[in-house]
Amino acid sequence: MARLIRRYSDGTRINHWMVALLFLCAGLTGLAIFHPVFWFFTALFGGGTWTKILHPFFGLLMVLGFVFLFFQVWRDNLWQPRDSEWMRRSPRLLRGDEDAMPPIGKYNAGQKGVFWLFAVCLLVLFVTGFVFWQPYFANAFPILLRRIAVLLHAIAAFLLILGVIIHVYAAIWVKGSVRAMTRGWVTPAWARRHHPLWYRQVNGDQ
Ligand code: HEM
């Protein structure tokens, strides 16, 4: 078999899956509190009271986990001029014409967009969450601020869930990506096809 290429260390993968698991817990508990239609999720967390108690802690741990992940990948997610060109041509990718896309580095513009969406949404969730966290912090803030915080919290949660759906769909769509995050390696053919500039970089050609 051809030499495999390392894409993620063990630590990064553990970190990523912890964040994913905490996202699931924070998301399900959050939805359960948000609307009665999702109330049945409380059965997974020991009932309504426990769901309300646990939700902010799941959220806090998710943000903490993401901070570590953020510092491992942010440099590779910085926007480059070629990313704008990639975005312009992205409708062709959606039609299955990957050959029409400009060569990209470790992440494509879509992945970068989702990454920054995650970062902004988690920051908003983190800050607004404290403003109405009962019984610890909420009483320190005026009611109007708390109401605005609740609204922003719900909008950021909605966008984060949308972002994760796109993220998971793309991960499954690009065959070989999930293995990068479960085993840590990719094949040279995968790297050459989907991330040619990164492939050249890891081979020392750039
Ligand atoms: C729950 C299901 C999830 C699946 C199946 C999944 C899958 C993946 C896969 C396969 C990759 C590697 C992509 C590549 O190297 O090209 C990846 C990267 C990444 N994932 Fe996830 N993920 C999930 C949830 C999450 C969540 C909830 C977050 C954060 C809120 C997250 C944040 C990231 C980040 C920051 C990267 C690094 C790539 C980048 O910066 O764009 N993932 N994920």
What does this structure look like?
With 206 residues, the protein is an all-alpha fold. It has one domain: Transmembrane di-heme cytochromes, Chain C (Fumarate Reductase Cytochrome B subunit, Up-down Bundle). It contains 8 helices and 2 strands, in the order βααααααβαα. The protein has helices at residues 10-34, 48-73, 81-94, 109-131, 143-173, 177-182, 188-194, 196-202; strands spanning 5-6, 185-186. It has a two-stranded antiparallel ribbon with strand order 1-2. Helix 2 crosses helix 4 and helix 4 (109-131) packs antiparallel against helix 5. It is elongated and about 60 Å long. The chain starts with a strand and ends with a helix. 21% of the residues are buried. Protoporphyrin IX containing FE (HEM) is lined by residues 7, 16, 19-20, 23, 66, 69, 73, 77, 107, 111, 115, 118, 164, 167-168, 171, 177-178, 180-181.
Radius of gyration from the alpha-carbon trace, in angstroms:
20 Å
Low-confidence segments: none
Q: Indicate the proportion of strand residues.
A: under 5%
Span of the ends, CA to CA: 25 Å
Largest sheet: 2 strands, antiparallel
> How many structural domains?
1
Which shape, going by the Cα principal axes?
elongated
For this structure, what is the CATH class? Mainly Alpha
Widest sheet: strand ordering:
1-2
Structural class by sheet pairing and helices: mainly alpha
Mean pLDDT: 96
How many extended strands? Answer: 2
Instruction: State the fourth-level CATH superfamily.
Output: Transmembrane di-heme cytochromes, Chain C
InterPro entries: Cyt_b561_bac/Ni-Hgenase (IPR011577), Di-haem_cyt_TM (IPR016174), FDH_cytochrome_b556_subunit (IPR051817), Formate_DH_gsu (IPR006471)
Domain Cytochrome b561 bacterial/Ni-hydrogenase: 7-184
Subcellular location: Cell membrane
Keywords: Cell membrane, Electron transport, Heme, Iron, Membrane, Metal-binding, Transmembrane, Transmembrane helix, Transport
